[in-house]
Amino acid sequence: MKTTTIKNIIHNNRTDIAFVIGNGINRYPNNPNALSWEDLLIELWHQVSLHTLSIRPEGISTTEFYDILELENVKDLNLQKKVTNLLTDWEPLTHHQLITEKIADLNAPLLTTNFEDTMSKTINCELFKIDDTSFTDFYPWSTYHGLEKLESPISGFGIWYINGMINYHRSIRLGLGHYMGSVERARNLIHRGKDGRLYSGKNAELWNGYKTWLHIIFNKSLFIFGLDLGENETFLRWLLIERFRYFKKFPNRKHKGWYLYKRNEKPISQGKKFFLERVGFEVIDVEEYEDLYVKIWE
């Protein structure tokens, strides 16, 4: 799809849009300082195991591999803290600033599956928490980087961290056990609590999770890019299924979705495309990574 068409999508939906960004933003353009999650896991393996391993073996997911890392951790190192140490010195590049400034200008929420604070550094964000919420450093879901305090996660620009944030190392979600914990916490907010349940339909603006980033997932159109969203992304995939199930129950509350990726010699897998389209996303390809991380934001 042409960049002008994608720009029009953003512009035409500017009052009802949130952005979901993955690690692709850090790896462009062939950034030598950015680790892929594969590289990160192998680096951790070198630090904890007595066995030599250069690549993740085929047939084990990244989340399962992390749990094996925990079992292999003969030195009893805190792996979540090790991850934050590896990411602390990451600095933003020009395209980080371009994208973050554009989203801030739109006054739209920004969700990321990344842990580091690279994007928040581009415009000198501060750390805020939605008022009247309890805090746990395992799940700081009401905490965000932004330019001002917000009444609600959907009321303006803020950077929210789906899989944990560098400020709280115990919040970092890497293993299958971590993801299952996130699913269980989200499930309790979405499905339990009588009238406070999201699916009760009675308090769409005041349900149990309305002061967390989960509120963005169910109440904004989502523009996803820089994110592989493979089978190992069990937590986010499950949330997208719940989101569409909610829209089926309450059609008048439905929001749009777009998933962008760079067209390669090998096309997007049929399974991923099938999944995304069935949960309400338009799948859009671009010609070059520059289109994804520069041109549509200019």
Automatic annotation (TrEMBL):
This is SIR2-like domain-containing protein. It comes from Chishuiella changwenlii.
